[in-house]
Design a protein that fits this description.
The protein is mainly alpha-helical and 106 residues long. The chain has helices spanning 2-22, 27-36, 39-48, 76-80, 93-99, and strands spanning 58-60, 67-68, 88-90. The chain folds into 2 domains: 2-48, no CATH class; 58-99, no CATH class. The chain has 5 helices and 3 strands; from the N terminus they run αααββαβα. The chain is rod-shaped, with a radius of gyration of 23 Å.
Length: 106
């Protein structure tokens, strides 16, 4: 009976470690917290940490239809032509993929 409880404890600890790796937090740290304390403490630690992955924002120039993954105020290509155009920020990359059919790609 004790072996079954230990096996379940280790399986839950391993699953929390996998979740920690997927959330891009410290998977090894989650493993040791779950192993030495309880998996419940490891779960609280895991969901208390913020995601370390950064969110990419895209910027679109409506004049020349270029899309930039870098934050800029004005379009550098249009500025070379003497036109100052503010870039529009997309909230998610899915907006960019939905708008690709509407953009005129040269």
């Amino acid at each position: 009976m004790l072996i079954v409880i230990i096996a379940i404890y280790l399986i839950i600890t391993f699953l929390l470690t996998v979740l920690g790796i997927e959330k891009q937090t410290e998977g090894l740290k989650v493993f040791f917290i779950s192993l030495f304390f309880t998996p419940l403490v490891g779960l609280f630690y895991l969901y208390g940490k913020k995601n370390k992955s950064s969110q990419i924002r895209y910027y679109h120039c409506y004049e020349c239809d270029y899309i930039y993954p870098v934050k800029m105020k004005d379009c550098p290509i249009c500025m070379e032509n003497g036109i100052k155009v503010r870039l529009k920020k997309y909230e998610s990359p899915y907006d960019v993929s939905n708008k690709i059919g509407e953009l005129s790609l040269a």
